[in-house]
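Exercise: predict the fold of this chain.
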Amino acid sequence: MLPIILTIAALTTLNSYAAEVSNDSFDKLMEQKTFKVQVSSDSLKEMKQASTLVISCVDFRLKNETSDFLNNTLKLIDDYDGIVMPGASLAVVDQTHPSWSESIYGIIEVLKTLHNIKRVVLLDHLNCGAYKVILGEDSVKTPDVELATHKKTLGQAKQAIQEKFPDLKIHTMIMSLDGTIENVQQ
């Protein structure tokens, strides 16, 4: 049993060291005065519209997957605006944080005028901490309950946005941590 404890202790130490090195590297990078990234198109200055607004979760675990889905699967590269909020659709209907929905509605209003958006994609994901914190552990206690909770919330959010912005088409989706995305038709 002792070698297992040492192995776990060693792994814990290595993970802690890796996090420290990562933070040190980040801090070192932040000493730079300027950065340069590759732009997706030479015509960014001329772009005036985005067809879609995507409301997704702030969860760091799915940033790459969400971007890949939007850019490569839905072919929305340089054609969507994004709002990232805890719980995605939950932020639209959550009564404990009313300023969240107010902000979302205000952003939608501005983007309809500024970028002429025509649709909203609500993209929730399973294993969402915001659902656990805001709605409680019972809302996600089993996979079936969790899925039902997300579908109900997506339906409520879709209806709420549709009532305020009847000219927008609303799409609801749920991403699993394995990258599978269910197109939920409410």
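Check your answer against the key: The chain has one domain: 48-184.
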